[in-house]
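[Q] Does anyone have a clean structure-token version of this?
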Amino acid sequence: MSDINNILKEVKEKSKKRNFTQSIDLAINTQQVDLKKPENKFTEEIHLPKGRGRSLKIAVIGDSLVIKSKGIADGLINEKALTTLEKDKKELKKTMDEYDFFIAEAPFMLRIGKSLGRFMAPRGKMPKPLPPQADPAPLIARLKNTTRASLKKNSAIHCTIGTEKMTEADLTSNFNAVIQAIEKKLPSGKNNIKSVYIKTTMGSAIKINY
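[A] Here you go.
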């Protein structure tokens, strides 16, 4: 594979300066993967060893988990707030846009699936269940350093590996973690990867010799 460090440096140098911090994104084009077979489709949440470069927002739904999550979660959705989301689709959309991941107290999952699943599932926002007695801190910490990669309707996989403010070395570590995780999910591993491109949010893509 090409020298990822040099490519990342080139990607950042060629990207015009914006008034926001751009993400560093991957586009992985697959080949010879039959997406008519359900077992070939996946959404994988991949831990980035060097973090996302920005703080993701995590919301917790429940009773006792909400109490435990004060000060560590970004959003706290108790039973009353959940009832509001079930009745107000505009507020639900706003909430889904605001948070990157959701955690729910396990006894709430059936209710959430019935009332909100059809809205949350297509956006990959279904909550991660935790028992009421669990400590939510480890899961919250892990999710804050997670990227999501999906292969569903078409042959391309898109995901973020960090931001332009991160060092090339850290981004390379994240890149390798993503590639290794995706190779494990594909039926024929690296043979199913046709090409890989890397870019900033608003920049041009550069192809990696994979």
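[Q] Thanks! Anything notable?
[A] Strands lie at 23-30, 42-47, 58-61, 75-77, 101-105, 128-130, 146-151, 156-163, 193-200, 206-208.
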